[in-house]
Amino acid sequence: AQSVAQPEDQVNVAEGNPLTVKCTYSVSGNPYLFWYVQYPNRGLQFLLKYITGDNLVKGSYGFEAEFNKSQTSFHLKKPSALVSDSALYFCAVRDPNTNAGKSTFGDGTTLTVKP
Amino acid sequence: DAGVTQSPTHLIKTRGQQVTLRCSPKSGHDTVSWYQQALGQGPQFIFQYYEEEERQRGNFPDRFSGHQFPNYSSELNVNALLLGDSALYLCASTKAGRGSTDTQYFGPGTRLTVL
Question: Which backbone phi and psi does A84 adopt, to 5 degrees?
Answer without folding.
Answer: -70, -10
